[in-house]
Amino acid sequence: MNPTPWYKNFWPWFLMFFPVVTIIACVFLVIFAVGNGPDMVVDDYYKKGKAINLELSKFDKAKALYLHGDLQVENDYVKFAFTKGDHSNVKALKASFYHRTIKKFDFDTTLLPNANDEFTAILEPIQQGAYTVFLEPMDGSWKLKENIQLPTKQNIQISPEYK
Questions:
Q1: Of 122, 127, 125, nearest to 149 (Cα)?
Q2: Do 104 and 154 form a contact (C-beta atoms < 8 A)?
Q3: What is the mean pLDDT of residues 153-163?
Q4: How far apart are the first and last CA of the chain?
Q5: Confidence tier at 41 by pLDDT (50, 70, 90)
Q6: Mean pLDDT of 109-120
Q7: Which of 54, 64, 71, 82 is the most buried (most CB within 10 A)?
Q8: How far apart are CA 139 and CA 91, in angstroms?
């Protein structure tokens, strides 16, 4: 009887299959993990903490000016109208939309006043999801914040409360 070579038998290939698949899966997982690091990690916590304190003073300024407004965000435009407060010095607004979990969906836009005393801007199509929106004048003297779900057809009331 002639023995068959090892590579023509079933059992050596069966026994090598699982370790080889495990090694390939580990290599893929390492490449995936290295390429998709978290976006929310901050390198310098001290500077970030100082910036947070500065941001809180901007919210206090908005509260002192008693600024309130209605925000409407559709798929292709955004509109903001002040309902209360001293907004006479506001020539344009910067609106920053931050997706809660995916950084690549974040976007900024400039809202310009129209004849109806509303601030509007045209948008690229936006991804649906939970966003935090910040509204501030171009000089950055005060700031309003609201957590919203996009897209929505309802007016969102924004007030200078901490949320």
A1: 127
A2: no
A3: 77
A4: 82
A5: low
A6: 90
A7: 71
A8: 10
List the structure tokens of 103.
Answer: 């950084």
The answer to whether the CB of 66 falls within 8 A of the CB of 86 is: yes
CA distance 132 to 147: 4
Question: CA 140, CA 80: separation in Å to the nearest integer?
Answer: 17
DSSP letter at 8 equals G
Q: Quick one: tokens of 151?
A: 């897209």
Q: How many CA atoms lie within 13 A of 31 on its CB side?
A: 6
Q: What does DSSP assign to residue 59?
A: H
Least confident of 44-48, 99-103, 105-109: 44-48
> Rounded to 5, what percent of the chain is helix, strand, coil?
30, 30, 35
Is residue 35's pLDDT more than 70?
yes
pTM for this prediction? 0.67
> Torsion angle of alpha carbons 114, 119, 122, 126, nearest 10°?
-160
Q: Can you read off the two tokens belonging to residue 44?
A: 């310098």
Query: What is the residue-wise DSSP string for 121-151?
Result: EE------EEEEEEEEETT-S--EEEEEEES
Q: How confident is the model at residue 44 (pLDDT cuts 50, 70, 90)?
A: low
pLDDT at 131 over 70: yes
Tell me the one-letter amino acid at 46.
Y
Sequence letter at residue 101: T
